[in-house]
């Protein structure tokens, strides 16, 4: 696996852990870090040893405290749009990863940090985590998909309130709003992620990817149902459905580990 300037990475038992490593800057997402996250996610998706991904921040304080504010100074409208497009593309590649991605939110997840967590499939927060979209304090709005994903997760009423007031919420509030899946003590954060990923690992990888693709197509219109039809149909081409159904009929546990048909 490649080495990165702003990330620490490791693979253990099929889990690729990607740690944003700028703790003295609250793991702020400068352009280079965003680009490296994109490259690391691509690399993890292409590596057959990797089953799933944990994305977290170095140190006990921050997951990521947003885009690097210093890089905003003096941008033109076109440069601002290009910066947002680069971030949106990387965050979409996370959302579209067919391998499950969990955000282990170990502290501040503000601005682009909250947007990064929201681009992951699941979010587990430590008790000290704080979430927010404080961009209006700077004369900005979320630009890495946050205006869209926050509303998808918490609804327009609360989402717009958070974006307009820049209010920071704690982990329990995030849980109550449906923004995170679980809140755990910081020392249990990674083990909780591993526990969930180990459950997912026993399921059909093809079906897990298909569920992600179908859920990603949700936009409140019939298009989502069409995507579900396609993904449902594709499952029948995979070898894994044969194993899953045979195992049920033979009253045994399915073993998907020898079936490698993620290309159906
Ligand atoms: N961009 C660039 N640098 C950042 C940053 C960001 N988004 N967030 C934190 N930093 C830097 C600080 O400038 C400081 O650097 P310095 O030591 O060189 O001065 C370092 O990280 C530590 O941050 P500091 O503010 O001293 O820590 P704190 O514990 O007092 O406060 C936060 C933590 C997260 C509340 C605070 O840093 C903050 O509000 N950050 C900006 C959040 C934000 O607006 N994000 C949206 C960006 S679009």
Commentary on this structure:
The structure is a single chain. 45% of the residues lie in helices and 16% in strands. With 264 residues, it is of the alpha/beta class. It has two domains: 7-201, Alpha-Beta Complex (2-enoyl-CoA Hydratase, Chain A, domain 1), CATH 3.90.226; 205-249. The strands form two sheets. Strands 1-2-3-5-7-10 form a six-stranded mixed beta sheet, sandwiched between helices. Strands 4-6-8-9 form a four-stranded mixed beta sheet. The model has no long low-confidence stretch (mean pLDDT 96). β1 (7-12) and β2 form a beta hairpin. It contains ten helices and ten strands. α3 crosses α4 (146-154), α4 (146-154) crosses α5 (156-165) and α8 (205-216) packs antiparallel against α9. Bound molecules: coenzyme A.
- Rounded to the nearest angstrom, the distance between the terminal CA atoms is 26 Å
Arithmetic mean pLDDT: 96
Order of helices and strands: EEHEEHEEHEEHHEHEHHHH
Q: Runs with pLDDT <50, length 5+?
A: none
The structural class is alpha/beta
Total beta strands: 10
Overall radius of gyration: 19 Å
In brief, what are we looking at here?
This protein is an alpha/beta fold and 264 residues long. It has two domains: 7-201, Alpha-Beta Complex (2-enoyl-CoA Hydratase, Chain A, domain 1), CATH 3.90.226.10; 205-249. It is built from ten helices and ten strands.
Features:
264 residues, 2 domains, binds coenzyme A, 10 strands, 10 helices, six-stranded mixed beta sheet, alpha/beta, four-stranded mixed beta sheet, 2-enoyl-CoA Hydratase, Chain A, domain 1, 45% helix
């Amino acid at each position: 696996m490649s080495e990165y300037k702003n990330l620490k990475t490791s693979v253990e038992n099929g889990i690729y852990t990607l740690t944003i490593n700028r703790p003295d800057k609250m793991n702020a997402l400068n352009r280079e870090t965003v680009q490296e996250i994109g490259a690391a996610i691509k690399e993890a998706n292409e590596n057959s040893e990797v089953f799933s991904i944990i994305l977290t921040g170095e140190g006990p304080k921050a997951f990521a405290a947003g885009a690097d504010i210093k890089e905003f100074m003096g941008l033109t409208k076109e440069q601002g749009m290009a910066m947002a497009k680069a971030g949106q593309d990387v965050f979409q590649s996370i959302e579209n990863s067919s391998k499950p991605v969990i955000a282990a939110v170990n502290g501040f997840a503000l601005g682009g940090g909250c947007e990064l967590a929201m681009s992951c499939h699941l979010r587990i927060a430590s008790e000290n985590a704080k979430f927010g979209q404080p961009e209006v304090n700077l004369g900005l709005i979320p630009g890495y998909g946050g205006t869209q994903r926050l509303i998808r997760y918490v609804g327009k009423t609360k989402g717009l309130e958070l974006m307009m007031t820049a209010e920071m919420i704690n982990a329990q509030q995030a849980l109550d709003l449906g923004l995170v899946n679980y809140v755990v003590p910081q020392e249990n954060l990674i083990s909780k992620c591993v526990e969930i990923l180990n459950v997912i690992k026993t399921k059909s990888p093809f079906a897990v990817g298909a569920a992600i693709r179908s859920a990603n197509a949700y936009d409140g219109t019939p298009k989502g149902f069409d995507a579900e039809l396609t993904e449902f149909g594709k499952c029948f081409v995979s070898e894994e459905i044969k194993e899953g159904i045979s195992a049920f009929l033979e009253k045994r546990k399915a073993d998907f580990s020898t079936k490698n048909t993620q290309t159906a």
